[in-house]
């Protein structure tokens, strides 16, 4: 399909006003310049820097001009190449980082080809859009403390015990997983509601940052840290220094204050054992490729706090400004909102729906779903609330219903009053990585069963992440 001349975008015209300052506009589709690619956008993820720029934190340098289309973490499909660009062709699915020029809250965006990497089908556009700034920052934070991700050296050099603060946030949740991949003991801080989530990422010890121990960053096991990956705003150097081991170590800080550079310089010239390493992300293509590969293998998972269509970008913005995301906040662009369908017309006798309602439905065996419009039985159509994306909603009808009926057929009860009384305790779920299986594992855990699951080797971490207690690679003898 030819690229249109104009597109929908979300922009702000001046500093301040938060989500209210964002306006929906129709603007010309940008043209890729030398070294750039034009992307048809699929998803963009919001980082705190996006709204900090709007707040005027980098005034007068950023944004470069008004009106400004914000957000630099992009996932999309290449539609046009600027001059000099090789290695990509129209149709390629990619992720990219276009910081500080932004442009992500739009149907099309230009991105630097040098910071654009292929997105394999195993990594969804939503997950891919979350990686560029947040996962790269997590990686660079850990590297700044001396952690090596090189298999040959990781066991022998560098720190052993790391503290990751704000481990439930966009950067922190990647930092925990990357630190575990490098074999470190991880103590992590987060709010009480996220303790189980952060444990699920692999953290060995988790502190609620609102308790006295959490505020003091004290490891429950009494360990002192030889590295800190600080992802929490407002933690001072003296507070971080106090928990570094007396033998020395580095606190890498992704939220450095104004004095951080001077403190760090003084430590260098005095050969201090305890060091502060302020971090400003420098995106690197090879790191982005490595992170995408980890995601492809299921070794680096993205937790998506919430997803919004472009038409509700203000809500996504407000959620990020609020500062309480668990994982990443994503704006989905280009049709995803239409996939599961909105009601446009009612057949005779249908009540309970009106045109405009967002719904999911099952049209089996009559089909019809691979079309712009489809008729569906009203009796098997249910409302889709905004928290459930069209993509997620469209996945539920056959696969999740089959998963539920499978478990019920074994005698499992989902009735709160009887679920523990049925006597069933242990279930085996085969093909747990598949469409039906991945719902079965989660439903079985919801009613408290012990789940053993089978899947291929590359999906073991994915299935563990669904909650399976034991996971078997179906290609091994056991
Ligand atoms: N320098 C750079 O290049 C660079 C790059 C990326 C990010 N950053 C900065 O790094 C910071 C983190 O970014 P992000 O994307 O991870 O933010 P985020 O996703 O918005 O972080 C929100 C999460 O952090 C938790 N949190 C906040 N303060 C905490 C504390 N004191 N202790 C423990 N948990 C805390 C919140 O938990 P509750 O909801 O329970 O409060 C929430 O789950 C931001 O300030 C961002 O601007 C800088």
TrEMBL record:
Residues 18-331 form the Enoyl reductase (ER) domain. Gene3D superfamilies: Medium-chain alcohol dehydrogenases, catalytic domain, NAD(P)-binding Rossmann-like Domain. GO terms for molecular function: oxidoreductase activity. It comes from Lolium multiflorum (Italian ryegrass). InterPro entries: ADH-like_N, Chloroplast_QOR, ER, GroES-like_sf, NAD(P)-bd_dom_sf. Transmembrane segments: none annotated. It holds the Pfam family ADH_N. This is Enoyl reductase (ER) domain-containing protein.
């Amino acid at each position: 399909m030819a690229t249109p001349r104009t597109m929908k975008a979300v922009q702000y015209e001046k500093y301040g006003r938060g989500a209210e300052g964002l306006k929906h506009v129709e603007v010309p589709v940008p043209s890729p310049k030398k070294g750039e690619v034009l992307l048809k956008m699929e998803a963009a993820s919001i980082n705190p820097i996006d709204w900090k720029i709007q707040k005027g934190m980098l005034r007068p340098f950023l944004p470069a001009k008004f009106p400004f289309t914000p957000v630099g973490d992009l996932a999309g499909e290449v539609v046009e190449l600027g001059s000099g660009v090789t290695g990509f062709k129209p149709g390629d699915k990619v992720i990219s980082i276009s910081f500080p020029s932004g442009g992500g809250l739009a149907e099309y965006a230009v991105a630097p080809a040098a910071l654009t990497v292929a997105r394999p089908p195993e990594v969804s556009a939503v997950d891919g859009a979350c990686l560029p700034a947040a996962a790269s920052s997590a990686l660079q934070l850990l590297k700044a403390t001396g952690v090596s991700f090189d298999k040959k050296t990781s066991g022998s050099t560098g720190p052993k015990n790391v503290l990751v603060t704000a481990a439930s946030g966009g950067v922190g949740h990647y930092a925990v997983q990357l630190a575990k991949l490098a074999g470190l003991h991880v103590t992590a801080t987060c709010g009480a509601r996220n303790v189980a989530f952060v444990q699920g990422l692999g953290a060995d010890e988790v502190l609620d940052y609102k308790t006295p121990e959490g505020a003091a960053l004290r490891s429950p096991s009494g360990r002192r840290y030889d590295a800190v990956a600080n992802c929490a705003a407002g933690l001072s150097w003296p507070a971080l220094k106090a928990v570094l081991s007396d033998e020395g170590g580095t606190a890498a800080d992704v939220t450095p204050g104004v004095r951080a550079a001077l403190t760090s310089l003084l430590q260098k010239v005095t050969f201090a054992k305890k060091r502060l390493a302020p971090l400003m992300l420098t995106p690197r293509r090879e790191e982005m490729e490595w992170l995408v590969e980890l995601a492809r293998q299921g070794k680096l998972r993205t937790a998506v706090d919430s997803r919004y269509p472009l038409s509700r970008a203000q809500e996504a913005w407000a959620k990020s400004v609020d500062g309480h995301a668990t994982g990443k906040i994503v704006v989905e662009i280009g049709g995803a909102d239409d996939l599961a369908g909105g009601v446009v017309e009612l057949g005779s006798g249908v009540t309970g729906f009106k045109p405009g309602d967002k719904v999911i439905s099952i049209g089996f065996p009559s089909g019809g779903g691979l079309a712009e419009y489809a008729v569906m039985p009203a009796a098997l159509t249910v409302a889709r609330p905004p928290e459930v994306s069209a993509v997620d909603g469209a996945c539920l009808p056959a696969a999740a219903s089959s998963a539920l009926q499978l478990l019920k057929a074994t005698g499992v009860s989902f009735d709160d009053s009887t679920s523990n009384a049925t006597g069933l305790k242990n279930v085996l779920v085969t093909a747990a990585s598949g469409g039906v299986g991945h719902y079965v594992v989660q439903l079985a855990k919801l009613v408290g069963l012990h789940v053993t699951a089978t899947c291929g080797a590359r999906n073991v971490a994915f299935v563990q992440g669904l909650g399976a207690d034991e996971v078997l690679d179906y290609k091994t003898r056991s």
